Task: inverse folding
């Protein structure tokens, strides 16, 4: 089984992720998708998503 964020081996403590960092990124994705995107402040939502994508890409 591999981490859904960065595809490294998972660590039992953080399953299904390899680290707390990846777990946090995944949580941020859900949070961003479900919570921040609706119309209140679209620019801020886009910035938040870009930040998450940058965090994810640094792990590769
Ligand atoms: Zn990972």
Result:
């Amino acid at each position: 089984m591999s981490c859904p964020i960065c595809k490294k081996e998972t660590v039992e403590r953080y399953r299904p992720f390899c680290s707390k960092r990846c777990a946090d990124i995944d949580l941020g994705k859900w949070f961003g998708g479900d919570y921040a995107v609706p119309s209140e402040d679209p620019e801020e939502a886009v910035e938040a998503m870009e930040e998450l994508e940058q965090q994810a890409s640094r792990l590769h």
User: Anything to note?
Assistant: The mean pLDDT is 81.
